[in-house]
Request: fold
Amino acid sequence: MREIKFRAWDKKRKFIFRVTELVWDFLSKVEIKDRTTGFVLKENDYDLMQYTGLKDKNGKEIYEGDILSYGMWSDDKGSCIYKVYWNEEDALFDTLDLRHNQEMTHVETFGAEIIGNIYENPELVSK
Reply:
């Protein structure tokens, strides 16, 4: 069974932090908390990213929004670059080949390495 964890991009402070608590109010709006920093963020102030349950070749946890480099099937430009996202239709984590704008089904992490994420490294998305 996959461990359920989240991290969040704080839109105002522009950084990622670990979410330690999700709180729903009576209107089904979610606020998130990080006990380490004391931050409490209301809906629309953050983007939530879920842990995939997978790790890269260095043992680093892979979350939605991470950018992976995968050298096994490289082209003339070098390693392939993938964005990790939640595929709602198939109810699974998927990757998108950013160089060729093609979906690659089922995240495979053998040899993949996290090189950034869509928030802190937007330049990687445009490669």
Residues 6-125 form one domain. The helical segments are 122-125. The mean pLDDT is 81. Residues 122-125 form the longest helix (4 residues).
